[in-house]
Design brief:
single chain, alpha/beta, CBS-domain, 6 helices
Length: 142
């Protein structure tokens, strides 16, 4: 089974991040540009939060706040659940399920490698299951 780090290498996106001072509007524009649902929030290279479309919906739209005058720091998730790059896809799914999150920052030592989405994890699990089924069918056929 692939690891979180291997999956990130396949996406070749790298770390997409904003600073805490970035406006919510600018963070959303960056997310749209990259076609992603969340960005890491870094301060002096350190992960201090994560900002997602869900944070926007709950903390800006539903509260009638302005995305141009609200900083990411005001609405981001601060208690960020992370996972080590050597973690398996099963570990990633378990962490996402247990904490009810859709985006999981992946660290190697204390360095952020990127953020895995639930969609990426599911895609790779399906791919691995297909390969396993093909191998088993080939073995059965002889």
């Amino acid at each position: 089974m692939r690891t979180a780090g291997e999956i990130l290498l396949k996406t070749a996106r790298g770390v997409v991040s904003v600073s805490p001072e970035t406006s919510v509007y600018d963070a959303l524009a960056r997310m749209a540009e990259e076609n992603i649902g969340a960005v890491a929030v870094l301060e002096r290279g350190e992960l201090v939060g994560i900002f997602s479309e869900r944070d926007y919906a709950r903390n800006i739209v539903l509260k009638g706040r302005s995305s141009t005058s609200t900083s990411v720091a005001q609405v981001m998730a601060r208690d960020v659940i992370t996972i080590n790059a050597s973690a398996s896809l099963t570990d990633c799914m378990e962490a996402m399920s247990a904490h009810k999150i859709r985006h999981l920052p992946v660290l190697e030592a204390s360095t952020l490698l990127g953020v895995l989405s639930i969609g990426e994890v599911v895609r790779h699990v399906i791919e691995e299951q297909r390969q396993l089924i093909e191998q088993l069918e080939s073995y059965i056929r002889g």
